[in-house]
Specification:
The chain is an all-alpha fold and 82 residues long.
Length: 82
């Protein structure tokens, strides 16, 4: 994101609106924090697994992390409706 920042004004406004919604809603922030606690660094896990240096624990962490994503998406989509 640093090397390729958003240049489209509408996309920037959308991102800022999302940040503002999270900032203004303490309940949403707490819910996001709780959901994100259960998600490991997926990029790092995938790097280890694709480099064949990962282990069963990494594979299980990936499974658990990916399993959390639907609930996180539901939380965020529900926020867009309010």
């Amino acid at each position: 994101w640093i090397l390729h920042p958003l240049l489209d004004a509408a996309a920037l406004r959308n991102r800022l609106n999302a940040v503002e919604a999270i900032h203004d809603d303490a309940g949403l922030r707490l819910a996001l924090r709780d959901h994100l606690k259960g998600i490991a660094d997926i990029e790092r896990l995938m790097g280890r697994l694709t480099a064949k240096s990962g282990n069963a624990r990494d594979l299980k962490a990936l499974e658990v992390s990916l399993g959390q994503l639907p609930a996180l998406l539901e939380l965020l989509e529900g926020e867009g409706e309010s």
